[in-house]
Amino acid sequence: MKKTPDFQTIPKIMVLLSLLAGSVSAQIQPDSATQFVVVKGTVDSSYRPRAGVLISARRSGKNTRTDGAGKFELLILRTDTLTFTYSGMPVRSYAFFQLTGDVALSFDLVTAEGQQVAIENDKGDAQTVDKNALPMFPWPVPQPSARYVLEDRYFATARTLSQVDKQLSSALQKSHYPGSSYYLIPNGFAMVNQIEQIEPDGAPKADPAERWSLQVQPLRKFDLGNYLRLLFTSATGHFRVVVFLVTNEMTPPSSLEPDLPTAKAWLNRGGDYLPEAIGKQPYGSGYHVTALIYEFQKPENGQARPVDPSKNSGQIHLTKSNFIPNLSR
User: Fold this and answer.
1) What pLDDT score was predicted for residue 18?
2) Residue ranges of domains in the chain
């Protein structure tokens, strides 16, 4: 059996993590008379103090918030788990085991580049990092071209966020979407789908190779109207990214519009699946599923630009893609 080190020999533990493009630094001091340690630290974002961050200890049942200077202090069990939550979003959890050495952690929640968390410890077992954290989707959300709140009846039998995820994923799979990625939003999650090329009326391109390509194809089938139009203008591609938001929070959009490369990158920067810790959260009163449609037009030899607003409603987009018919099955 591994011997627990004497409290007097436990050195100070330094924990450093980046939060919202900033950091949390904490100094853990052992209390030799009890099974507890005092955690003191400062949370900042872009080198400015971050007030109102909730720090919760799972086993001890203790919690506190950072003050106006971004400082906090909390007494926790030596083998406790700390969770940092900001604006209702659990950004990262840390589980501590036999604090025996220096620990350094870092991650970037804003850019969501998927940086590997670095763990340094003299025994390698002083702490583990909860892998349930997801990168944060831009909040408030970027201005969409169209939006649609799905009817509650589609999710009448859902009791957890995981069950909603399964229903969405099933309908997307039946609609031939190749994959999704996941992000954290307040009290829920966002599901981003692969960018697709569509017809002007919102229907996906019939040819899968063309549907999932960012290349604008020249006119293939003769049509007098298209032929006359192409005499004076270049071919224009229409593209769409569908993002589902599952939350009980209002989702007012910002005034910023994403460009095509940004929307395309969302798929690669999110999580591969919905973590269990998020999925088991209850889906109930006040929760809704909102679809955000980000549409772009791209001339054959030009730069893509966002369409605001789309000439098609969010409901039309989801119906033309066969998502709503498949969700109803």
Assistant:
1) 40
2) 7-129, 146-328
By DSSP bridging, strand 22-30 and strand 54-57 are unpaired
- Mean pLDDT for each consecutive 10-residue tract of the chain (329 residues)? 38 38 50 58 59 78 83 72 68 53 36 32 37 69 95 96 97 95 86 95 94 76 54 73 93 85 89 85 92 92 89 97 94
Handedness of CA 309, 142, 240, 214 (dihedral sign): positive
- CA–CA distance, 51 with 86 (Å, rounded to integer): 9
CB atoms within 10 A of CB 164: 24
Type of residue at 249: E
Single-letter code of the amino acid located at 322: N
Residues with Cβ within 8 Å of 279's Cβ and at least 6 positions away in sequence, in order, are: 160, 161, 162, 165
For the record, the structure tokens of 171 come out as 């309908």
